[in-house]
Amino acid sequence: MIQKKLESAAQAVADMKDGATLLVGGFGGSGLPSHLVAALVEQGAKELTVVSNNIGAVSDGVAALISNDQVKKIICSFPVGPHENDLIERLQKGTIELEISPQGTLAERIRAGGAGVPAFYTPTAVGTELGEGKETREFNGRVHVLEQAITGDYAFIKGHRADRWGNIVYRKTQRNFNPVMATAATVTIAEVSQIVEVGELDPENIVTPSIYVHRLVLVEQGQEGKVLVNE
């Protein structure tokens, strides 16, 4: 993988089209690629399908995209929070669709998508509203529902350090949905705090290999993010 060019942070999301499916990493505010989300709010792509563990605050995270009328569907495990009234109003108007997936199931759907597994069975949600209408099958005397894998056109992830090829190390709870989302998108864009030379990262600490990372956004405090585009 060869470094091609150094551009503004906004360029990292400039080619996103209306109707794209976007995976957004993070668990609450931990590991949330907030600079990339903010850049997409400015870019303005609409009719997005967004996959995220939770929606976030009104002014941050996926909630900012919802408030800016950029989202047509949200797939998440935790839709409640400060933004809840805004989301409910849009659901009532029919301007947005909500699909709730249990947290572990959501993670596995994304992991399966990255691994090329189209679907899998799980006992989670059997006998609940979340399992209604889904195919079921019994294994070892227990009923399971069939869940479809999730893939995206783009993934926004956040890491701590990366080298210039895009190998990524995470800091503590940044390692939540980010690693699996990196594998499940056509284009993965990573927001990191530091970029080092190739060879400076301990290979044993690299969680996301560079093969999954297409663009690196360096976010430095008090400075506009810069992006390294790898092709």
From TrEMBL:
InterPro entries for the chain: 3-oxoacid_CoA-transf_A (IPR012792), CoA_trans_fam_I (IPR004165), CoA_transf_BS (IPR004163), NagB/RpiA_transferase-like (IPR037171)
Keyword Transferase in annotation: yes
Source taxon at top rank: Bacteria
GO MF terms, alphabetically ordered: CoA-transferase activity
Gene3D superfamilies: Glutaconate Coenzyme A-transferase (3.40.1080.10)
Entry keyword set: Transferase
Protein's UniProt keywords contain Transferase: yes
Pfam families: CoA_trans
Transmembrane segments: none
Family: Belongs to the 3-oxoacid CoA-transferase subunit A family.
NCBIfam families reported in the protein's UniProt record: pcaI_scoA_fam
Protein name according to UniProt: 3-oxoadipate CoA-transferase subunit A
Organism field: Neobacillus bataviensis LMG 21833
Organism lineage: Bacteria, Bacillati, Bacillota, Bacilli, Bacillales
